[in-house]
């Protein structure tokens, strides 16, 4: 393996070490923001390290056909050390600002949607309900008025109708009683 390839491999692994440090800080910040149960944190930790090793191995395959030597580990450790000494605190501060901005942006978008879409829809919904309730009360008032007019107009005939009904019911009652008696007397004979 040539010296240029070895230098390229060490630089690539140093970059991988710095990127793994950034990934670790990113993962640590998001893990601190979320309130996950311990078993899920363990699973995510394992997945993070498996994913990191897989990414490093893929880069190693691209750079020097996957040959593992001591300078590779030195490059990764050096890159991670430089990142944690020089840029870790600044990156974490930047990440917190990005998270705060994303939260602010999310709340702002929700407020805009609420103001421009949800509130007008609720307003029109309430207006429609009020109009329907008003129309329903007007319809009930009209029907009540018509019912009172109809009762007033038909009141002279109502007494005649009640009298007629009593006569018809009385005759029907007699027919019913006679039929019932006839049926019971026939049963007794049998």
UniProtKB/TrEMBL annotation:
Keywords, in A-Z order: Membrane, Transmembrane, Transmembrane helix
Q: Which residues form the signal peptide?
A: none
Q: Can you tell me where the transmembrane regions are?
A: 6-24, 36-61, 67-86, 123-147
Entry protein name: Spore cortex biosynthesis protein YabQ
This protein's species is Brevibacillus nitrificans
- Give the gene name: yabQ
